[in-house]
Amino acid sequence: MVRSYERIGSSWGLRKEEAEMGSCGNLARRALETEMPIMVKMQELLRGAKNAVSLAQGVVHWQPPKQALDKVKELVWEPSISRYGADEGLPELREALIRKLHHENNLHKSSVMVTAGANQAFVNLVLTLCDAGDSVVMFAPYYFNAYMSFQMTGITNILVGPGDPKTLHPDADWLERILSETKPTPKLVTVVNPGNPSGTYIPAPLLERISDLCLKAGSWLVVDNTYEYFMYDGLKHSCVEGNHIVNVFSFSKAYGMMGWRVGYIAYPSEVEGFAAQLLKVQDNIPICASIISQYLALHSLEVGPEWITERVQSLVKNREIVLEALSPLGEGSVKGGEGAIYLWAKLPDGHTDDFKVVHWLAHRHGIAVIPGSACGSPGNLRISFGGLTENDCKAAAEKLKRGLEELVRDGLV
Q1: Are 121 and 10 in contact (CB under 8 A)?
Q2: Residue 91 buriedness (CB in 10 A; 0-12 / 13-18 / 19+)
Q3: Which of 71, 74, 240, 257 has the fewest CB atoms within 10 Å, counting from its CB?
């Protein structure tokens, strides 16, 4: 399946006709037919917008724990830092992660591989679990990088399920029907909990039902737990475990380690051959995650989860500020925000071209957000409230509110 790419400014990718004519010579079709990363599009868009503030990228405003940074500063001259490490990760980090999985996630039958971020973890899993031509399942609004991972590895049958109109929760009844009716059975089902781009939390009973449906059908379930600590209003994150389940985790958001690139895979220990096949992929992509980054992850774990939850709770105010800024869209237009760092907002009727709205907001009002089209849901916006301190968030929210008020009142002018 080839999708046409939208253009804002210069070209972001090939249109169908260009791909079919081979205008890029002998480049791989799987690359040509993979969507251009939305963050690359946003970076290009913002180059032409003066003094634009971003509520687009999924980042946090804090840095890693100071005591952890101080410890890795001392390691710079250590020779082992500049050498290759074990493909699956530093032994001491893996041991610490196993303890963390036991105590915090109630995962007791999982082994660990450390990766260069959660995105690389997901690519590892797609290459290990899926063949080109397999069908896979995800739910809209979906995480754009996961969708691209399927595209670029030759998976042409991406079945995108609906979310509940009121909650955006994955539709388990739809999943049950798809898993029973699609032949051959979809190889893999993936969800993000809490959600990116929606900020929606999947309650434990629903997650268990999704797991049971996958087990019955013989499908893998991959759960992205990147935002496990980002829970609000007394909600608690939960994980599921089984020989058909793989969990993905990340240090990027929780510890402010976006640029250090450390994530990890918790895969079923009892599945024979899983680790060996995963190692083949790992050795041919990063070999191993950055050694100094892994030590920073190890020392960050030592500060304990309380360090994270204290900072996450400071985002509650940001969420309130952005919610108020979205009020011009009207009652019922905003969903999510129960977890993660995102709110999901429906644009006024008639504005299905959300790329055009995003371009207009950036250039006319100096505020950047993500178009819902990038997540399989045109006519919506993803707004991130994690990347700015409270004062900066207020300033950004003021720009957003002014823009939305004008959009509702006058349309795109």
Answers
A1: no
A2: exposed
A3: 74
